[in-house]
Write a structure and sequence with these properties.
Elements lengths: L2 E5 L5 H13 L2 E4 L15 E7 L12 H9 L7 E8 L6 H11 L4 E8 L6 H10 L11 H23 L5 E2 L4 H26 L6 H4 L8 E2 L8 H5 L5 E4 L2 E4 L8 H5 L5 E2 L16 H4 L3
Parallel strand pairs: 1-2, 1-3, 3-4, 4-5, 5-6
Antiparallel strand pairs: 7-10, 8-9
The structure holds flavin mononucleotide and iron/sulfur cluster (2 copies).
Flavin mononucleotide (FMN) binds next to helix 1 and strand 4.
Length: 296
């Protein structure tokens, strides 16, 4: 086996990136959620890639999704492997790669390189403020942002070549992370954003007095459906952690959420709403199909 590419993905960006890397390296594509019932995960290839979306780096968190942290915690026997990581993001990857390197080191491994890839266009601060204070509608669909999206995808294809030659040469030492100066300048803003996020998530999860990490699984308490829900059950089948049960053909969230937004993004009738996705554009990667995302 040449390579194993482990991935986690909600709207398909990280899956598309992982798929490109697996094709380049003639590697095996392995879904991280599909392994989470195992106590230990023993990679089989010499080259190991980990691909995932950045979560909450802009709110002063590690940037690593909870499920990916749990995955790293199960990795065994990685000391002799060539490990690299790629995280997809919306413009604020922060110190995610650096934090991942630390987590891998704690498992006895060494991250040879870590790369960030901007893949989505979140709402700008201006758009959010216009929505909040002037009640202007938010643009509902990122697919309308086609030009910007095409640029991001084209940029990724170029970067794929660079990463591929980096791996081919077994290089080490590239860690795309926030600079020391950036960390210093951003520290007060991150502290403010973290405090605001904590208060928001305490409200969303209806639980006071916990850390953001503890609140994330409960943030699904803000999800709800409207009359467009036809009971198809796709939300339950696409959820990477089986956090949705269908009760009388309606989804009921079980408070073990990863906040990946797959249910929201892949619902065919756009029936899912809630404060947690208030600022999320409806989007999934155009080259990823629903069938690629289903958990069975
Ligand atoms: C819960 C959540 C938190 C996120 N936090 C960040 C962030 O801190 N910084 C950032 O640049 N993008 C952030 N994003 C955007 C994702 O990293 C980005 O859209 C990514 O490409 C999604 O990958 P996926 O389609 O594989 O799920 C966040 C997305 C979600 C759902
Ligand atoms: S995917 Fe959408 S329409 Fe289907 S059951 Fe879930 S919420 Fe309802
Ligand atoms: S409930 Fe929705 S947001 Fe939460 S983990 Fe499942 S698919 Fe992702």
């Amino acid at each position: 086996m040449n390579a194993e590419i482990y991935y986690f993905s909600g709207s398909g960006n990280s899956l598309a990136v992982a798929r490109d890397l697996a094709a380049k390296r003639m590697g095996k594509l392995i879904s991280i959620p599909s392994l989470m019932n195992k106590d230990h995960i023993l990679p089989d290839a010499d080259v190991i890639g980990i691909v995932f979306p950045v979560y909450y780096a802009s709110l002063g968190q590690s940037g690593i999704p909870l499920i990916v942290e749990r995955f790293i915690g199960k990795l065994e026997n990685i000391g002799s492997r060539y490990l690299f990581a790629v995280c997809t993001h919306g413009g604020a990857a922060g110190a995610t790669i650096e934090n991942l390197s630390r987590s891998i080191h704690a498992r006895g491994g060494q991250l040879a390189g870590g790369f960030t890839v901007k893949m989505s266009n979140p709402y700008s601060v201006g758009e959010k403020l216009r929505y909040l204070f002037l009640h202007k509608a938010l643009e509902a669909n990122i697919q309308a942002d086609n030009e910007k999206q095409r640029e991001l995808f084209a940029h990724w294809k170029k970067k794929l070549e660079l990463i591929d030659s980096y791996i081919e040469a077994r290089k080490t030492g590239t860690f795309e992370t926030r600079s020391a100066g950036g960390k210093f300048i951003l520290a007060p803003f991150l502290a403010m954003q973290t405090a605001a996020a904590l208060s928001r998530y305490r409200k969303l999860s209806k639980m006071p007095g916990h850390s953001l990490e503890d609140l994330i699984p409960f943030a699904d308490r803000s999800f709800r459906t409207d009359e467009r829900c036809n009971g198809c059950g796709i939300c339950a089948r696409v959820c990477p952690v089986h956090n949705i049960e269908l009760v009388d053909t309606r989804p009921v969230w079980q408070q073990a959420c990863e906040t990946c937004n797959a249910c929201f993004q892949w619902c065919p009738t756009q029936a899912i709403h809630g404060e947690i996705v208030e600022f999320e554009k409806r989007y999934h990667h155009p080259d990823v199909k629903l069938s690629d995302m289903l958990m069975e």
